[in-house]
Specification:
The protein is α/β, with parallel strands linked by helices. The chain folds into two domains: 3-134, D-Maltodextrin-Binding Protein, domain 2, CATH 3.40.190.10; 145-191, no CATH class. It has helices at 20-29, 44-56, 69-77, 90-97, 145-166, 170-177, 184-191, and strands at 3-6, 8-11, 36-38, 63-65, 83-84, 102-106, 132-135. A five-stranded mixed beta sheet has the order 4-3-5-2-6, sandwiched between helices. A two-stranded antiparallel sheet has the order 1-7. 26% of the residues are buried.
Length: 198
């Protein structure tokens, strides 16, 4: 597995809410006023929005599918759509910290070290609102072990090369030094000094 990350429930700062509970109450009290965007129909972002509606009894919160998260984020910043549910990325977090977006809750089982101020949806009073996206490499069942080993070796080399570059970037160096960034793969790779892989 490569990366696991949650989605985040985000509003434009003009929406008069500061918590997930306030958002649910606002949507219910203002039928026809809110909609949410996602990276596209059938994405985990979309399904997380539908789960939010199902768990809270919201009936009037239409979904607006975008062609990717970038356009949805741009429209949320530009107040073209009041709410989005993107993946939690450094970009989304930076827009939150600069006041361009407001993050209300993450769909992770626990708060994340890089943004401990953002509560989970469960902490915010919505048990069951949990979703995580997984990026990784998968192979069909029955793939010969030598082929899996070759893919693993190529992936390890590629990740080591990329990490060699990004670890020199000041924001990541700072996050690693302050223990705000957590990656099981990265920790394993960095601590495996005796590995024969370059």
């Amino acid at each position: 597995m490569g990366v696991v990350f949650p989605n985040v429930i985000v509003v434009n700062p003009n929406v008069p809410v500061h918590s997930l509970g306030e958002l649910v109450a606002y949507v219910k009290a203002n039928p026809g006023k809110m909609a949410y965007g996602s990276a596209g129909t059938g994405t985990l972002n979309h399904l997380s929005g539908e789960l939010l509606k199902s768990l809270t009894g919201i009936t009037d919160l239409p979904h607006v599918p975008y062609r990717g998260a970038g356009p949805a984020i741009a429209d949320a910043i530009g107040d073209q759509i009041p709410m989005i549910i993107p993946a939690m990325t450094n970009q989304v977090l930076e827009f939150h910290r600069t006041g361009k977006l407001r993050l209300l809750a993450i769909t992770n089982p626990a708060r994340i070290p890089v943004a401990p101020e953002i509560p989970t949806a469960v902490e915010s009073g919505i048990p069951g609102l949990f979703s995580q996206q997984v990026l990784g490499l998968f192979a069909p069942a029955g793939t010969p072990k030598p082929v899996i080993a070759q893919i693993d070796e190529a992936n390890h080399r590629a990740m080591a090369a990329v990490l060699g570059v990004i670890l020199k970037l000041p924001p990541l160096k700072q996050a690693l030094a302050s223990k705000q960034f957590k990656s099981i793969y990265l920790d394993k790779l960095l601590s495996n000094k005796s590995a024969k892989r370059p």
